[in-house]
Amino acid sequence: MHMNVSAEPADVDPRPLSARSVVLSLLLGMHPPELPVKDLVRLVEPFGIGGSTLRAALSRMTASGDLRRSGDAVYRLSDRLLARQGRQDEAVRPRTRAWGGDWEMLVITATGRGPAERADLRTRLAALRLAELREGVWLRPANLARALPPDLLEIAESYTSRPSRPAAELAAALWPLTTWSAKARALLVRAAESPLPPARLTVFAAVVRHLLTDPVLPPDLLPPDWPGDRLRTAYADYRAELGEPTLLPPA
What we know:
Elements: H1 19-28, E1 34-36, H2 37-44, H3 51-64, E2 67-69, E3 74-77, H4 79-92, E4 103-108, H5 115-127, E5 131-134, E6 137-141, E7 156-161, H6 167-174, H7 177-192, H8 197-211, H9 228-242
Antiparallel strand pairs: 1-3, 2-3, 4-6, 4-7, 5-6
Helix pairs in contact: 7-8, 7-9, 8-9
C-alpha cells in the first residue's frame, strides 16, 4: 500500500522571506490581488524591505511572469498565481458536507505517460486531498463539497465505494495523521512565541503551507484533539490582527 506523506519538513523553523516572497504573500491574500506601488512600499517596510529593493523585485517579478503591471503603477498577480490563490483560499476555508460513510475513488486509466507527467499527476491528486491506495488508485472519504476537474476525468474513472477495511484504520494508513498533528501543534506554539511582524509572517506562511496538506477528514476518522480547526482559527485571528491584506505563502 502506498501512503501519502506530508510535504512539510520535520522542523517548524520558518524560512526567511525575500522581497519577492513578501510581495507575493501580500497579493495572494488580497481580493482582488493587486496593489499600487505606494501601498506596497508602505506594507513591506515593517519587513525591512526598502523602496529600491522593492522596485527591483517588482521589475524581476514582472519580467518572470509572476506579476502584471498596469499603466498606473498597479501590480497584480498573473493568471498562474491566481490559480495558486484559489488553492490557498480553499486550504484555509475548506468546504465540506455531511459524511455518510462513502468514499470517492479515482482509478487512473490513461497509459503511456512519462515520469514528469506521472509526478505532476500525483501532485495534482494530492492537492485534491486524495491519497494513493496502490499504483493508480486514489481515494478519500466523500465529505468534500467539490467536483473533480473535468480534464482529470478524461484520464481516470471515478467511483463511489465503501471499503471493507474500517474507515478510521484506512485513513490512518493513507495519511500521516500523527506527524501532521505534531507539526500543527508546533506551529501554534511558534506563532504564540513570535511577536515581531517578519517572524509572524514567516510562521503564518508556514501555517498555510501546512493547511494545504490537511486531508480534511470527517471528525470520526481523526485522532483525538485534532488541531486543524485551531490552526485555521489562529490564522483567522492573525488576519484580524493585521487589519491589512491577508498574508499567504508565496508560490
